[in-house]
């Protein structure tokens, strides 16, 4: 086996807990640049999935990941290690995605005024059905309170534990569980039997 390949496999074999400890040590030592590089390597993909769940756009999610990492870099001097690095980063991403979603919603509302006169017809077939389901799910998600939507997306799309959801949202674990439960109930009621 090539030496470079062996090193790459060793890095891949490291657990997220080990990576998080390394990042916390770098932050404690004030080495913010290296901590940012490690955060990007370890957490960019999961943050990207979270941003994608919020925005529905690959291009927007990539920009929001970069914005999240830059905001994290700016916040590193104030990081107190009260929760996990992962929850810290997802909390920043949640806020950035929330602001982005609000801005997009305002822009879409304005555009809807212009485009309401032209009604688009759905194509027949499975693609149209999938688009309809996705649209209904997005609409149901959009009807949730922002706090419930964030908790639901953090829990099921980002895969955070209830404890990490609580840390990312700045609430206790019981409140995080309640928010997710309420959000699921509202989504089921809104979407119906699916």
TrEMBL record:
The keyword Transcription regulation applies. GO terms for biological process: DNA-templated transcription initiation. Keywords: DNA-binding, Sigma factor, Transcription, Transcription regulation. Residues 137-187 form the RNA polymerase sigma factor 70 region 4 type domain. Residues 46-103 form the RNA polymerase sigma-70 region domain. One of its GO terms (molecular function) is DNA binding. InterPro entries: RNA_pol_sigma-70-like, RNA_pol_sigma-70_dom, RNA_pol_sigma70_ECF_CS, RNA_pol_sigma70_r2, RNA_pol_sigma70_r4_t2, RNA_pol_sigma_r2, RNA_pol_sigma_r3/r4-like, WH-like_DNA-bd_sf. PANTHER family: RNA POLYMERASE ECF-TYPE SIGMA FACTO, RNA POLYMERASE SIGMA FACTOR HI_1459-RELATED. This is RNA polymerase sigma factor. It comes from Polyangium spumosum.
